[in-house]
Amino acid sequence: MTSIDIGAEEDFPLEEGVYIGHEVTGGEPIAVFRTDEGIYALNDRCTHGNYSLSEGWVEDGTVECPKHASSFCLANGKVLNLPATEDAPTHRIEVVNGRVLLTPQF
């Protein structure tokens, strides 16, 4: 799949999620997170329920679902605690000349 330019690196606030809708991704909505370690992309929906991970809390390389507090590793999507039991799908991110390029993995 082709990479999508989703903005400048500074458009993504540190330790916050940014919602990228299906009209941009061509599939499921994606949540993009920027930390001091890098920029990461996961499916926006928690695997436990229909709640937006982009609205979750970001800390120490994880995002916590705002509804039931399941946490996911930003780097690989692994679920870290219950009630979720399924990992969150991840998507490829590259930063080229300060631009964030998303390659959805649908």
From TrEMBL:
Rieske domain: residues covered: 26-102
Signal peptide: none
MF GO annotations: 2 iron, 2 sulfur cluster binding; metal ion binding; monooxygenase activity; oxidoreductase activity, acting on paired donors, with incorporation or reduction of molecular oxygen
A Pfam family: Rieske
CDD domains the UniProt entry points to: Rieske_RO_ferredoxin
Membrane-crossing segments per the record: none
InterPro entries associated with the record: Rieske_2Fe-2S, Rieske_2Fe-2S_sf
Keyword Iron-sulfur: yes
Keywords assigned: 2Fe-2S, Iron, Iron-sulfur, Metal-binding
PANTHER family: 3-PHENYLPROPIONATE_CINNAMIC ACID DIOXYGENASE FERREDOXIN SUBUNIT, FERREDOXIN-RELATED
Protein's name according to its UniProt entry: Non-heme iron oxygenase ferredoxin subunit
Natural source organism: Enteractinococcus helveticum
